[in-house]
Amino acid sequence: MNGQEKKRISIALLDLYEGVPNEGMRCIKEIIDHWKKINKLDVQLQVFDVRINQEVPSTDFDIYISSGGPGSPLDSEGSEWEKKYLQWVHEILNWNNDPLRFNKKHVFFICHSYQLACRHFEVASVTRRKSTAFGVFPVHMLDDADTEPIFEGLPDPFYAVDSRDYQVIKPNHGKLRKMGASILSIEKDRPHVPLERAVMAIRFNRYMIGTQFHPEADATGMTMYLLRDDKKKTVIDNHGEDKWHSMIHGLNDPGKILLTNSHLLPNFLNHAVEEIAVTN
Fold first, then answer.
1. Could you tell me the residue range of the domain that residue 178 belongs to?
2. CA–CA gap between residue 247 and residue 137 (Å, rounded)
3. What is the distance of C-alpha 90 from the center of its chain?
4. What is the rounded distance in angstroms from the CA atom of residue 129 to the CA atom of residue 196?
5. In this structure, is residue 244 part of a structural domain?
6. Is residue 249 part of a domain?
7. Is 179 within a domain?
């Protein structure tokens, strides 16, 4: 990807934040901007406001990244914006399943988008957590992650930002097998807590993948969040003050979220572009 002539790649960024101030969109844009520069690519990026303006992209893009967002991934069922969003998902599925179309579309679902996808595909249960999950936590890979290109360069476990009131649990293995999906990672095992571990990443098919955690999160954004009184209280109430201090001190650790930020989404983009180059 480092040839003299810049390759043109089009990326659609689906914004599900519903106008709520966030760090996610900034982080995703910065990752894309850095990635295009080091790979000398001509990237055309367009943002779509899914929930307020009910915007969804066409099938004209090469790559799609669907963001996290606030609120319940259950209560939006039947809403106009979600109908349009899921129609877009099926348009991409139909495109990718058409043997006469060689330029397949690659999709990454983040957090809220991931929960919507899991609920829609019926690959697991999406339920409300007993308490809010917020902070930096280890993510444990499963066997199928061994050959997963987006995890290339990451240790097991790797660290990621988790920010959610809902969870994906109780995977439907029959449905997963039927659609060719695989579970890639789960949250930390806590034997003293009688709760099922959440599914943290799923490859839904060859071209669609999603994570419960925020692979785009960086130290700047997380520092701001962890210093907010409400977020600090959430971490301390659920994990203790020592854990909060540990999270703060670990934000600039090159082996934690900085490593995830610099690898996971760039790996997804690299893999997508490599496949696009093969089929074009």
1. 7-129+138-217+261-279
2. 9
3. 19
4. 11
5. no
6. no
7. yes
Compute the residue count for the chain: 280
The b/e string for 47-84 (b: 16+ C-beta within 10 A; e otherwise) is bbbbbeeebbbeeebbbbbbbbbeeebeebeeeebbee
* 114-162 tens-digit pLDDT: 999 999 999 999 999 988 777 888 999 999 999 999 999 999 999 999 8
8 Å CB contact between 105 and 207: yes
Q: How many CB atoms lie within 10 A of CB 118?
A: 27
Strand partners, 158: 139
Report the alpha-carbon distance of residue 97 to residue 206 in Å, rounded: 10
> To 10 degrees, what angle do helices 229-239 and 219-227 make?
80
pLDDT digits (tens, 9 = 90+) for 13-70: 999 999 998 999 999 999 999 999 999 999 999 999 999 999 999 999 999 999 999 9
pTM: 0.91
The reply to whether 247 falls in a domain is no
> What is the C-alpha to C-alpha distance for residues 256 and 250, in angstroms, rounded to an integer?
7
> What CATH number does the domain containing 14 carry?
3.40.50.880
CA pseudo-torsion sign 134, 136, 138, 143: positive
Closest CA to 156 of 140, 136, 137: 140
Query: Total structural domains in the chain?
Result: 1
